[in-house]
Each structure stands twice: as C-alpha cells, then as structure tokens.
C-alpha cells in the first residue's frame, strides 16, 4: 500500500509559547509530537510510505531531528496559515491521493488503521470527534452522510475536526484550485468547504471518538495528550 503523507509543521506555535517549533514539543513518553506522528505513520503504512513535511519557523531544528524525509519550505510561514502550506504540498505531490495532518496532533496509532480502507478506496475524508465540540475548534455538519460545512463558525455542529485528513487522487486538483482561492490567513478547511459548496466535493467524516486525537495548542491540550499516551 503506497501512501503519500504530509505533515504541516511551518507555524510558529505562539499559543503554546515554546522557543522551538511546536512539533518538537516533548511528550511524557520521551518522544516529540512529530516523532509519535512519524512512528504512527510507519507502523500503519510501513514500506510504501513517503513522508513530506512543510516547514517554516526554525526549520533547521526539524531538519536536524528528521533528516530522512522530504521537505517543502513555506517561506511566508509568519504571514500565512495552513491553507498555503497544504497548497504547496499538494502542488508538489506525486500522482495519487495525499494523507495530511497538522504537525501538532498527538493521536492513537489505531486512527490510521481505521482509515486504511478509505485510502485504498480513494475516498476523501476528514477525521472527526463527535464526543467534543470545542469553541475554538474547526467544526462540521453533514448532509446525506458527507461533510456539508467545515469551519470554526459552524452552528449546530456534529463534532470537531481533529487535523488528520485525506484527499483522493480524483479530488486533489479541485482542492488545489479552491485552496488557491483562499485568503492567506485561512485554514485549509476553508478550501475544503469551498470545494464542497462549488464542486460538490464528497468528503466522509470518520469518527475516531473511541480513540484519541489531541491538537496541542495550549498547555491543557498537552496535558490531555500525555494522559492518553
């Protein structure tokens, strides 16, 4: 099973307040956030895996920690949001679908096992948690089993996105086009939402609520992630 995976790790992580890139934040088991992501990816997809990391803030620290993956530089990391990092990665990706995740997500390895079939079927998806709907999180609604809205401002949300996603080979050109339409400060979810609205992009929400996935923005998120390791 060949899988292209992208880790979005260009941001400055100002809310967590570390003097180094947030993906290099140590966890209670001795690994960093990014190391547990790499471990989870290799466990799930082994030899058929190609990892590309989008870097920006203090990129040399990430390159030194992980010298054996491919890199893309978002030179405007201090002026743009995740949509521009993802756009660069998708434009430079090889043929086929792309699995991507935010560089601050700590998650159960079983999450990737749960989406293997959808990747093999070339079905675009976002991983979600229906057990929690945080005010500051990206939320979603559904229509006929597919995502219909996806933003921080969704009303009557079904749950929240957890930052692990996949775009199929067929859907990738559309998502690239719509990400390019986003403002520089938009999250990548805005590009997905535009594609759903304008192109009827069919994105499946995958509920991983029985597992765990924590986006580490604040100290309390880091505490919660460590509790679940």
Structural commentary:
It is a single chain. The protein has 229 residues and is α/β, with parallel strands linked by helices. Helices cover 32% and strands 25% of the residues. The protein has helices at residues 33-45, 59-65, 82-92, 110-114, 116-120, 172-181, 188-199, 219-228; strands spanning 3-9, 49-55, 70-73, 98-102, 105-107, 125-129, 139-143, 146-151, 159-167, 204-207, 213-215. Strands 1, 2, 3, 4, 6, 7, 8, 9 and 10 form a 9-stranded mixed sheet that branches. A two-stranded antiparallel sheet has the order 5-11. Helix 3 (82-92) packs antiparallel against helix 6, helix 3 (82-92) crosses helix 7 and helix 6 packs across helix 7.
Search tags:
single chain, 229 residues, alpha/beta, two-stranded antiparallel sheet, 8 helices, 11 strands
Please give a quick description of this structure.
This protein is an alpha/beta fold. 32% of the residues lie in helices and 25% in strands.
Topology:
Layout: E1 3-9, H1 33-45, E2 49-55, H2 59-65, E3 70-73, H3 82-92, E4 98-102, E5 105-107, H4 110-114, H5 116-120, E6 125-129, E7 139-143, E8 146-151, E9 159-167, H6 172-181, H7 188-199, E10 204-207, E11 213-215, H8 219-228
Parallel strand pairs: 1-2, 1-4, 2-3, 6-10
Antiparallel strand pairs: 4-9, 5-11, 6-9, 7-8, 7-9
Helix pairs in contact: 3-6, 3-7, 6-7
């Amino acid at each position: 099973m060949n899988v292209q995976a992208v880790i979005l790790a260009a941001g400055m992580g100002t809310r967590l307040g570390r003097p180094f890139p947030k993906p290099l934040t140590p966890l209670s088991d001795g690994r960093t956030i990014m190391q547990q992501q790499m471990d989870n990816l290799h466990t799930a997809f082994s030899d058929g895996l190609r990892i590309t990391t989008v870097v920006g803030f203090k990129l040399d620290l990430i390159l030194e920690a992980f010298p054996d993956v491919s890199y893309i530089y978002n030179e405007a990391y201090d002026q743009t949001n995740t949509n521009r990092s993802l756009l660069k990665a998708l434009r430079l990706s090889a043929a086929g679908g792309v699995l991507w995740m935010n560089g601050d997500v700590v998650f159960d390895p079983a999450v990737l096992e749960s989406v293997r079939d959808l990747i093999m079927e070339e079905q675009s998806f976002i991983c979600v948690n229906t057990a929690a709907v945080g005010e500051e999180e990206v939320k979603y609604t559904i229509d006929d089993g597919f995502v219909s809205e996806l933003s921080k401002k969704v009303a009557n949300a079904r749950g929240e996105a957890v930052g692990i996603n996949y775009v199929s080979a067929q859907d990738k050109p559309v998502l690239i086009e719509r990400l390019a339409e986003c403002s520089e400060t938009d999250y990548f979810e805005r590009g997905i939402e535009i594609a759903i609205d304008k192109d009827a992009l069919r994105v499946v929400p995958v509920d991983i609520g029985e597992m765990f996935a924590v986006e580490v923005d604040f100290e309390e998120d880091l505490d919660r992630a460590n509790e679940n390791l």
